[in-house]
Write a structure and sequence with these properties.
This protein is α+β, with helices and mostly antiparallel strands. The protein has 4 helices and 2 strands; from the N terminus they run E-E-H-H-H-H. The longest helix has 15 residues, at 66-80. 18% of the residues are buried.
């Protein structure tokens, strides 16, 4: 499995002051996981996950269509499979 996946937006999205049709989503690091864990509330956690793994700002994320929030969530779930604990021997 790759450490990154691309997500293709279904609706208009902006990143770095320009419209984008696609964004790269990377696998989380321990730093990302700790930052996400510190956030309270499910929606705030999802926004923090998207911010940490895409580089989008909170304002850009706040403007995303729900379909794209859900789609990015599906990509994130796939990438979380990358950080599995080592098997006990």
């Amino acid at each position: 499995m790759s450490d990154t996946m691309n997500y293709r937006f279904k609706h208009t999205a902006k990143h770095q002051n320009r419209e984008v049709t696609e964004i790269e989503v990377r696998a989380p690091t321990m730093r990302d996981l700790k930052a996400i864990d510190a956030v309270k509330g499910n929606m705030a956690k999802m926004a923090k996950i998207i911010e940490a793994l895409t580089g989008m700002t909170q304002r850009e994320i706040d403007d995303l269509h729900f379909d794209d929030i859900r789609g990015l969530g599906e990509v994130v779930v796939g990438l979380f499979g990358v950080v599995k604990p080592a098997a006990a021997t």
